[in-house]
Amino acid sequence: MAFGITRDELVQWKSKIQQGEIAFLTHYWMDPRFPGSTSVTKVGAQDIDQLAKWGEQYGLKKQWIDRKESYPHFDLFGEWQEKVLRLEGIEDQYAKFLEKKDRTL
After folding, report:
1. CA-to-CA dists, residue 7 to 4, 27, 51, 74, 79, angstroms
2. Rounded to whole angstroms, how far apart are CA atoms 67 and 17?
3. pLDDT digit string, tens, across residues 34-89
4. Is the pLDDT reported for residue 10 higher than 70?
5. Percentage of residues in the chain with pLDDT exceeding 90?
6. Alpha-carbon Rg for the chain in angstroms
7. How many Cβ atoms from other residues are within 10 Å of residue 7's Cβ?
8. Which of 35, 50, 69, 97 is deepest in the core (most CB within 10 A)?
9. What tens digit of pLDDT does each residue of 49-64 get?
């Protein structure tokens, strides 16, 4: 279950993917498999090869792409998530979900 985003933000993410773009969506999410993480960033694209090529620049592997939904995506947590959001210039999602007063990258 996604928390901290609006329905419109989810619709926009899906729309960008359907238009052939690489799209980013961050939301609150907790999973015992990822202790210490309180959010996830989903980086999606319709074209799996395009998504895999994008992920290579960050050391992400094609086999890590989540394909169980209609919107193939990487799920990024922790350091991966922080690094990608900062390097991609997605400051609004970084600030909303990750920024802490005592943390710097």
Report:
1. 10, 12, 24, 20, 27
2. 13
3. 788 888 899 999 999 999 999 999 999 999 999 977 899 999 988 888 889 889 98
4. yes
5. 51
6. 13
7. 7
8. 97
9. 999 999 999 999 999 9
In which band, very low, low, confident or very high, does the pLDDT at 95 lie, cut at 50, 70 and 90?
Answer: confident
Distance CA 82, CA 16 (A): 22
Chain centre distance of CA 13: 10
The bridge status of strand 73-76 relative to strand 39-44 is antiparallel
State how far the Cα of 88 lies from the Cα of 64, in Å rounded to an integer. Answer: 19
Q: What single letter denotes the amino acid at residue 1?
A: M
Give the separation between CA 89 and CA 70, rounded to whole angstroms: 26
DSSP, collapsed to helix, strand or coil, labels residue 26 as: strand
CA distance 73 to 36: 22
d(CA 68, CA 46) in angstroms, rounded, equals 13
